[in-house]
Specification:
Layout lengths: L1 H44 L11 H8 L26 H12 L5 H11 L6 H14 L3 E3 L2 E3 L4
Antiparallel strand pairs: 1-2
């Protein structure tokens, strides 16, 4: 019976050891979850990247191989789109200045060209139309025969 007792004691030790390892694994998984949550919060607060991204095995394997030919079409710039510079003057104010400078009875296309040459603003026709209509509704501009002018008196 001593052999059976030895086997039972060994089984008991292994069960306790497995329970300790399981508890340690659960504790480490919880800590990992907390760290990932903290990393997400920090990434929202810090404008630059706080930590480099982790490389998975698949990505690391791809990085070691040099591609023979590019697989897809790529833009010549090779990156993100450039963000347009914010204009120094809002479109509404620039529109009023353009009508003042060009005089009375000017077309929307003339205003659009003036904005492009004088202020360097590339304005879409529908955006200019909305700005002109806002000024018309507020009484700052008047429209007659698709020509814009400052109201008289």
């Amino acid at each position: 019976m001593s052999t059976v007792d030895d086997i039972t004691a060994e089984r008991q030790r292994l069960t306790e050891r497995l329970a300790r390892v399981d508890a340690e694994r659960a504790k480490l998984a919880e800590q990992l979850t907390e760290l990932e949550a903290a990393e997400r919060v920090l990434s929202r607060l810090v404008p630059t990247k706080a930590a480099p991204r982790r490389r998975t095995r698949a990505r690391a394997a791809k990085a070691t191989k040099a591609p023979a030919e590019p697989t897809g079409r790529r833009r010549a710039s090779g990156g993100r789109r450039k963000v347009a510079a914010k204009p120094a003057l809002p479109l509404g104010d620039a529109t009023l200045r353009a009508v003042e400078a060009l005089g009375n009875e000017v077309s929307a296309e003339q205003i659009r060209e003036y904005l492009g040459t004088q202020f360097g603003m590339q304005v879409r026709p529908n955006h200019l139309g909305m700005a002109l209509q806002r000024h018309r509704r507020s009484g700052r501009l008047s429209e007659r025969n698709a020509r814009w002018s400052m109201p008289q008196g």
